[in-house]
Amino acid sequence: MRSFVAALILVGLIVGPWLSDTRAASDREKLLTEPGVYGTFALFALNEEWAKQDPAMRIVRLTSLKGVVEQHREHVAIDVYLLRGLSDHADLLFRIHAAELRQTQEFLLDLKSSQFGRHLKTVGVMHGLTKTPNYVPGFSEQMKADLKAVSEPGQHPYAIIIPIRKSAEWWGLDQEKRAAMMQEHTAVTLPYLKTVKRKLYHSSGLDDLDFITYFETSKLEDFHRLVLSLENVQEFRYTRRFGNPTILGTMKSLDEIVELLAQ
Amino acid sequence: MRSFVAALILVGLIVGPWLSDTRAASDREKLLTEPGVYGTFALFALNEEWAKQDPAMRIVRLTSLKGVVEQHREHVAIDVYLLRGLSDHADLLFRIHAAELRQTQEFLLDLKSSQFGRHLKTVGVMHGLTKTPNYVPGFSEQMKADLKAVSEPGQHPYAIIIPIRKSAEWWGLDQEKRAAMMQEHTAVTLPYLKTVKRKLYHSSGLDDLDFITYFETSKLEDFHRLVLSLENVQEFRYTRRFGNPTILGTMKSLDEIVELLAQ
Amino acid sequence: MRSFVAALILVGLIVGPWLSDTRAASDREKLLTEPGVYGTFALFALNEEWAKQDPAMRIVRLTSLKGVVEQHREHVAIDVYLLRGLSDHADLLFRIHAAELRQTQEFLLDLKSSQFGRHLKTVGVMHGLTKTPNYVPGFSEQMKADLKAVSEPGQHPYAIIIPIRKSAEWWGLDQEKRAAMMQEHTAVTLPYLKTVKRKLYHSSGLDDLDFITYFETSKLEDFHRLVLSLENVQEFRYTRRFGNPTILGTMKSLDEIVELLAQ
Amino acid sequence: MRSFVAALILVGLIVGPWLSDTRAASDREKLLTEPGVYGTFALFALNEEWAKQDPAMRIVRLTSLKGVVEQHREHVAIDVYLLRGLSDHADLLFRIHAAELRQTQEFLLDLKSSQFGRHLKTVGVMHGLTKTPNYVPGFSEQMKADLKAVSEPGQHPYAIIIPIRKSAEWWGLDQEKRAAMMQEHTAVTLPYLKTVKRKLYHSSGLDDLDFITYFETSKLEDFHRLVLSLENVQEFRYTRRFGNPTILGTMKSLDEIVELLAQ
Amino acid sequence: MRSFVAALILVGLIVGPWLSDTRAASDREKLLTEPGVYGTFALFALNEEWAKQDPAMRIVRLTSLKGVVEQHREHVAIDVYLLRGLSDHADLLFRIHAAELRQTQEFLLDLKSSQFGRHLKTVGVMHGLTKTPNYVPGFSEQMKADLKAVSEPGQHPYAIIIPIRKSAEWWGLDQEKRAAMMQEHTAVTLPYLKTVKRKLYHSSGLDDLDFITYFETSKLEDFHRLVLSLENVQEFRYTRRFGNPTILGTMKSLDEIVELLAQ
Fold first, then answer.
1. In terms of CB atoms within 10 Å, which end of chain B has fewer, N or C?
2. Domain containing C229 — which CATH number?
3. What is the ipTM of this complex?
4. What pLDDT, in 10s, does the model give residues C108-144?
5. Is residue E74 a part of any domain in this protein?
6. How many domains, chain E?
7. What pLDDT is stored for residue D13 in this prediction?
């Protein structure tokens, strides 16, 4: 059955190569690494009718998904995650990076209008902005050096997203006190730099959040230990929302998503 | 496809020019600038059946939307925003200004009864009242002068609505203390007067809120920095609800909305 | 269209005059003014099928609504409010006064079983009891005299319902302290006695509330100012729920409701 | 119509007399009075399809309800309450007493699988355990004597269920302090012993509650005064959940329920 | 009827013996006892269409459930619990133990894609990790000896799952203080070691929880007393979520589940 589905996908979808365009690839690289980029996390559940579609019809619909992604990948960087089985209420997560949120909205509008999108219920949308680090300039030289360690190459199958809201007390502290606490916060994360990749988005005003913290790892136990360490530092007492929801999924290529949902 | 839809819209909808009537335009100006006006923010989601309508039927339905807006624009000022893709659970926001909430109710009743309205699920309704500024009379002359700066003309594509509820402690403070904190609050907003347009609605008793704060900007990053600044001042500690939800969308003309939803 | 609908209503519904019976009117007067009466606020939303009924069928169904109200009006006093367009999630509010909650239940059972009631989803039910004033006996003579002022006759088109729950600290205060705070609370309401009509229901044990406060006014801005005044007094700090939801609607005769919903 | 329905019920349902079996009656008596018995409160709403059934079909389905109750009444004591019109979101409440929760589960499984049960949506389930009184042994002799007063015989048409969760501070107090507060709590309830019947269920661990308090009365105003008295005592400050929901309904025999729902 | 269903099940399902494979059994044993294993609690409700299927169709669908479990049992240990009648909103609970959460996701994806799974709505998913005990090494020798007591063999029909989140204050305490409180916590649980089996999962970062506590017992009253004891110790004051939801069900073999749901 899987191979039959895979064959249908081959015929139906592989029209243009995925991310072959060098320019798109370099734009994607920029969007994923530079400050001043908007990151959107859009969570969707498949509606009840999806389960009732026969495989051929599903593949037609999934082709439209692939088409929409192709059409927008020059302007926005799109990553897809499978949440089904690991998170409540949502099946898919799209992480979209764009220079302007308007571009993200255009992608999501086209996604929702597509034949596949009509089976998607929007479960949540969160936005954040990448920025140059706030506190790092004041850290010790040793810590700055440590922070340059790069996470190990290879597969990071799990992704975890934890939304954060700080208390009013936190924002009321002076910059120096916050910097000291962030240095303590950062220190306990150093042992996990190699196995847990992190990315921070600033959300104040764009959503009911102050930060979206994004993690990738192939070692979930390390990630768990990292969170335990973060719960131990003083800065954690100024956090009034941590999770709610915590989103856990696995990273997938669009082709893998198509194959999985076709079944 | 888009041009076909646009042609259908041209034939079907452009019967009378939009806002051509000078009197309606001047009434609209008054409603948008004077105190003692009621502002209503009505959030709607399109129901599941909308996605199943064919384009021709959608255009018939969207014509009814345009008709209802035409019919009421002498009495109420209506602005439309596209939330889909940027906010959870709602697709459209109508901001309605009226001298009396009865008039707003009449518009929304006709909207719901229209052929288009039958596809709308009401997600939220918030009301506020415009008033002359409470604290400005006591501000320094310099600040009063600064506040006269007008936001830059041109497009402000993004709109953000943040509902606010103050704590009982806030209301228990004497007027002088609150005025001092509001002066600090206002001071940090001055750098953003030119790029972020603001409007305040007073809601106590009309809704589970004390204020609705409304923002327009083409520079979302400036808006984000403005919110960060507001989180830093002492008055923020007396806020017990900030957002929940934060509503983010893009401003659209009715014609743009019609064209987008027709697809 | 409206006149056609009105004609159908005339033929179909005006069988017996509304509230013509003198006895029913006097019973109604008693229920609305005396202590020891149960007041129920029942909120309903029209289901999705209602919007799909044709006008003739709607009128048949609305006739059943009118019939149920006629049948029960000897025992219970029924007022109807239109919430659609002004409140979230509910379209209609019935306020029912009865000597016994059993009678209210019988009315609501018959309403739900009626052809119209099958289109109603129950969104909320709140109960309270009218009582002789707790704190007034201890007020100053001047205040007692002021409180005798009657609200101005004429139309009060808006109705607002705000549920209240006091904190455990409030109930733990001795009677004298609470009386002093209630005197301050009452003092700030005096300027609004003429334009905002008020009624208080005691709910402890009957619902997750301590009080239901009910307001009628034609001047919503006065009502807003009244609430602002109430937020300023010391007693407000002992309120742990104020609204959630705040219910805002317009008072309608049953005939008006029938005409509006028939469209 | 009612008499037609009643006749159909007579033919269809009155096969065996309700609770005629002496053994079942005595078992029921034990379950309702002894400690170490599990009490379950199961709340159900009728689904939208129920309203669309014709009367004859409803009676067929209601016969299955009666059959399931008959089948289980040897092992579990079942009481039925009508919530519709008095409580939000639920129409029916079953109170089930059993020596083992397994037996309650078996009854509820059969109920859900029955033709009637297919129209029931489970709105809530709460469990508690009857125990010998914790604090009474330490009360004064006078209070012990007072507590022996029995509630007046006759109809108690109203039932109210209030779930309770105490704060961590309460459980952290030593037994002596809690006993003193419970004596004060009990003292204020004495004036209502005759008109308000009470029963206590212990829930810690079985549900997100510490207690389920159950009341029966024909005088709701007395019950309201009792709750006001309980809000005044010191022990109330250690309550962090009181209600949420408060459940109010009327006690009905199964035959009454069948007749009411058949319409 | 039951025997007819049982016969159909015999014909349809008993193709391969359940857990006959010795290797699978030993893997299961490891997964259930060793540290470093991921435990997932997945809660499902049967959708409205399930109740409308005829018995033969149900059995076809249940066969697919059994097939999916068979297919995955080499990699994951699967236990099934019946919640219907004892918990709100969910009918079934799957507890899945796996060396990697990816394997759990694969099982749940196949379950959802199966003919049976199309009737399942995901109500909740919680994850935790088994670890070697944190605090036991510092306990007294006597307590270590006591903890070696094994729970009595035989049937433990009830299972209870209570999710726990500790306060930021808890994590801010030094290890020594936490260890002292955990010793007090453990001491009060000793009387229940024989009748209440416990298992602990660590969740920080994997979910909006710090711990999932899992209990099995045939004596629910003992479990209730155990929880009361835990509410009394100092450590309980540092718990900010205990339950919400508390999940109560009965342990069933897959064959029992199939037989029960077939009816």
1. N
2. 3.30.70.3420
3. 0.91
4. 999 999 999 999 999 999 999 999 988 888 888 888 8
5. yes
6. 2
7. 42
